[in-house]
Amino acid sequence: MATATLALTHAACDAALQALDDIIDDPNLYNTPLQILRTDFLSLLSLIYAATTKIALALKPSSPTYTAAKSPLKDLTVHITALSHCVRILDPTHGATFAHEFTFAAKDVIVSVKVLIQTFLDIGASSSIKSTGKAGDEYIVRTAAVHDVINNVRSSLSQDNVAAVKKKLAQNHASLDDGLQEVEAMVNDHDSPPDDDWEDDGWGELGIDSKSQMSPDELERTKKVHAILRLSTLLHKRIIKDVLTIPSGQVTLPPRVVQNLDLLPPQSSSLLVASDDLVATLYTPQVPSDISTELLPFMAVIDTLRSTLLEFIQEPSLVEQMQAMSLQTPQKDPKKWFQTCFAQIQKAADSLSSLLNTDA
Questions:
Q1: What residues have CB less than 8 Å from 125, skipping those under 6 apart?
Q2: Residue 191 DSSP symbol
């Protein structure tokens, strides 16, 4: 029986997961370059993939070969421990966003392996569990799950902190753009006659009549919100395309810049939430005071983003990169573009506020 070896591997998974939650206080351990750690990490994933495949073949419930499973189980125990260690010695100066992605990638792999090992332990403890050797068998499903997790990490793990931050913002940007398109549809569809074949879409249950036409005042407010969201979404896009388009390894970021960079994902998420809340106030019948209420936190997010971004793009090496790779001509000053964009957002917000004060 390989029960004892399985139990050791299972315990190694528990220990590895616990280690990932522990903090290392010894700065002497942070001496491995990021790209070496990342390469080692991916190599370990390949070894774990191979080991779990061998284990699944050796411990097929219908005809297990316990002696053949011992060696890959021992290898798997070593690889799981090494995977955790690889993440733990990541220097914090490489950035919190990448560290978070790196850690959760390791946890996903280790948890999937732990579930696979537990499946074999359960099979060994129960004589009633049978195997057909087909895809529906639990151990095959769990093995495939490990492989899927590993393949996903291999294909998606960011190269560095800049790439990790860019990935987070790109995820949010799709939703920001959806919100902008939603408001644009409100404006464009205003003059369209109601569809007699319209079917209930569920909004009525929430007290929102999505079929109702806007009044002229409501349409004017919606247009002004659309102007604000168009600018803020463009701003977000330019952060991704200009600020975060930095070739890996070509720019060494000072710690203060890395810290500012790590502020962008949560601020991007805050912008998404504030945008969605602002859009939600535009359904008829509109309440001007609700729009005013949601505009305040939206502009607070914009102000916070401005402080973070304008300090970030003052880094000389990054300014040179942005000028060379800008969507505008290379001679354009990226800082000036962002300052202008922020000013335009403020101007559009002031215009909306004036209108709302008139409606009050």
A1: none
A2: T
